[in-house]
What does this fold into?
Amino acid sequence: MVLLKRSFLILVSICFVLAVQAQNNLTDEEKEKFEDGIGPKKAETDTIWKLGGTAGLNISQSYFSNWAAGGQNTFSFTALTSLFAKYNKGKHSWETTLDMAYGQLSQGDQDPIKTDDRFDLTSKYGIQAKNPDWYYSVLFNFRTQFAPGYEIEDGDELEPKISDLLSPAFSILSPGIDYKPNDKFSALLSPITLKTTIVIDDSLVTDYGVDAGENVRFEPGAFLKMQYQNDIAENVNLLTRLDLFTNYAENFGNIDVNWETLITLKVNSWLNTTITTQLIYDDDINIGQRDPVLGENGEILQPGVAGGPRTQFREVLAIGLTAKF
It folds into this structure.
């Protein structure tokens, strides 16, 4: 886990340094063109490349020594980066985004626990139809986490393990019709989609709908993805994405939901406040499943908990340094 954390932080740092260096190597005229969404290639080949992203670091720390009112020493951090690449040439459009985050909280003498952990890659290629607002598109999405996750029992032990790198991982391959009336809203509808669930840790496969003895599950179905991004007020940006999927082969009509919202409040060029929420409902993910705890003579000390699909929700409020490139 330590290696994964270090690798993640190194990756964020490299992305940040390379982006800043690349921007510094541009002339003032080229920078203005890129800010307007026009690369130097525009004049030569009528091709528009737009590259950019953000990187941020949020840190919180408290220390107590002989403090009469009491308290525990704490330290937490969250490192995050969001990168994008957009390509347009004639009727062809290609958009790729990569969102990564990792956070940890250390409190007193307890083991550190995760507060954020995500890897989400989305790439969408489209060819414009006769109607300029519609595209024939193919979307690919892959998401997982970097490090093990644990169910915390009474704040003492980080057991049992409930997730890990590629356990689970989810991918979507989705050809369909994409409606893009402007640069703020898009909606992709695919009647033929392949959802893949990957769980390489054999002890976790049944928690994510994969059959025992297998590590991969394939689901054919229908998929709808909607996205909206806009400045809803001065220095306030809203980004929201909604993914809906239903399986044709099993429990058709039960809808898997992944709804993400990010509100960014810009204080100045390097200080931002962000509010992130994510709501997930997946009919195949068993939440709360736990075997009974048995004593030395086989007696039940603690009853088991039956697992089942439940609504998952997370919210993160962060204030910290942000660099945009």
In short: The first strand starts at residue 47 and ends at 62.
